Amino acid sequence: MTDELMRVVIFILLALTVLGRAATAEVKPAQGVQYTVAFAGMETVADLADLIRQSSALVSKTDDPPPSRAALQRRVDDDLERFESAARSLGYYDAEFNAAIQSGTAAGVPGIVTVTVDPGTAYRIGLVEFRTVDDAPLAVDAELPTKRIGLAVGDQARAADVVSGQTTALRILHERGYPLAEAGKRTVLIDRDTKEMRVTFRFNPGPAARLGPVSVSGAETVDPGFVLRRLPWRFGESADIRKIEDGRRNLASTGVFETVDVRFGDTVDTEGLIPVEVLVTERAPRSIGAGVSASTSEGLGVNAFWTHRNLFGGAERLDVNGRVSEVETHVTGDLRLPDVILNDQDLVLSSGLVKESTDSYDSQKVSVGGRFERRVNDILTVDYGVVLERSLIDEGDVENRYTLVGLPVGATIDTSDDLLNPTRGGRSRVRFTPYLESLGSTISFYSMTARHAHYIALDDARDFVLAGRAAIGSILGASTNNIPADKRLYSGGSGSVRGYGLQKIGPLDGAGDPTGGRSMLEVGAELRWRIHGDFGILPFIDGGQVYDTETPDFGQELQWAAGLGFRYYTPIGPIRADIAFPLNPRSSDDRFQVYFSLGQAF
């Protein structure tokens, strides 16, 4: 184990060193007037100190020295103007800045530019008022709470708050039933005697309005009635811009439109109603695609799919998927019917034919099922349904036929920012499926799994992403031998613990083939580094174990593996190539595994 681990570590370090050297440009010695920058007087004004350093060319261009002392002086003078503007933006209207240049004491010794700051007193908000564009008192003044706008009397007088305050105030008017409101000229007065800022916002609020008739344009094959049902308001409700935005999102999420625009009309009628216009452009309803994957343990695999997004005119979606590989051949179909019984609740009818040939078992299975998927909010989806399966499973020395009726229940929380290449957020999935003899199953048992992956961007450009995952599972109610082999828990392979063969982790029979278990535990982590353009690398480590008991034995050592991955980023997701080595292999485990596919490992 120690020799194998040492070889893996040396391999990863050599790869990182070579790639790091390739990505590092030659650094030439700087020419010109060398200098360093020092600031004095900003110790008690952290906000001003941060902004000055961020705006300073003296600081940002230290490695790009000017060609002469005169050029350095111009850089200093330009910075002093920037500093004064930065100070005013934070309310330091009396701030004073001075700079002195001290030459180096000897050849090759950089000079020092010392910037002295006297920030003065930070001005405060003394008055916030709202008026019409004609400078009359605004009748809807009470609709504009200063606390939400971010400009309350006594707050520090920041210019950015004034600008955003006007935007927020206009937004509030649009939310509170004034859809035609417009912003006018704002006035900002500085009183140097009282050290206060007085802000006057001007608006043309227009008339208060309620949501009126809706017109739909551009729906050619999509039923306009379906479009209207996706709009989350009733006739006559207050004209709140948030309802318009929700309607736009609801229509975009159906997947049948290329573009969606939902907007207010131009006028309010005598009854106080404003019309709403829905303009859509439909997507091509059909799409077809294919993909290829390969690994040392699963061989070559080919995937294909065909999708129709608008089968009957109401965004009904039909997906047909197929896969052929050395270990699995399947064809599945899903028909998704939107907004069944409730809005944001889909009915999904599924069927499938699956043939598997692994070291654990050979199986043939047909399944049909239906489930409801309920979108609770933007990140949470719950589902519940029923599935019927008939299978023939051959474990070498015994062949069994099974009938299973399951009642799967699950929940998904997804806060990630991308399907194939997430860099922030996380994904959690919990599923519980009872298979009951009382419903017609050959045997009763209860299957439970929980999985979570999390992604943390380590820099603003998201070139460095730390990704981690964990999974746990358990089957209750039956012994391992009585549970159908294709329902047992396994670990090892491309989407599991890399470095081990497919399903190879856990108990083995006398022939060295995996038998599966009733519980499992997996963990993994990788550091994704986009080193240059569309190319990236990542070191990773995975671990997992399968147990014959109903719950994991946390005292038993996991099977660990480590490796290095390579990524080529494309518009449809990263192309993945991973090589992994088991760190504590058993005698039956291969020395390494290689994987190729589209998308990240998790």
Summarize it.
The chain has 602 residues and is an alpha+beta fold. The protein contains eight helices and 27 strands. It has four domains: 35-118, membrane protein fhac (Ubiquitin-like (UB roll)), CATH 3.10.20; 124-204, Ubiquitin-like (UB roll) (Roll); 210-282, membrane protein fhac (Ubiquitin-like (UB roll), Roll); 286-598, Porin (Beta Barrel).
Q: What do these coordinates show?
A:
- The structure is a single chain.
- The protein is an alpha+beta fold and 602 residues long.
- The chain folds into four domains: 84 residues, Ubiquitin-like (UB roll); 81 residues, Ubiquitin-like (UB roll), CATH 3.10.20; 73 residues, Roll (Ubiquitin-like (UB roll)); 313 residues, Porin (Beta Barrel), CATH 2.40.160.
- Helices cover 16% and strands 43% of the residues.
- It is built from eight helices and 27 strands.
- It has a 16-stranded antiparallel β-barrel. Strands 4, 5, 6 and 7 form a four-stranded mixed sheet that branches.
- A hairpin with a 4-residue loop joins strand 16 and strand 17.
- Helix 2 crosses helix 4.
- The protein is flat.
- About 4% of the residues have low confidence.
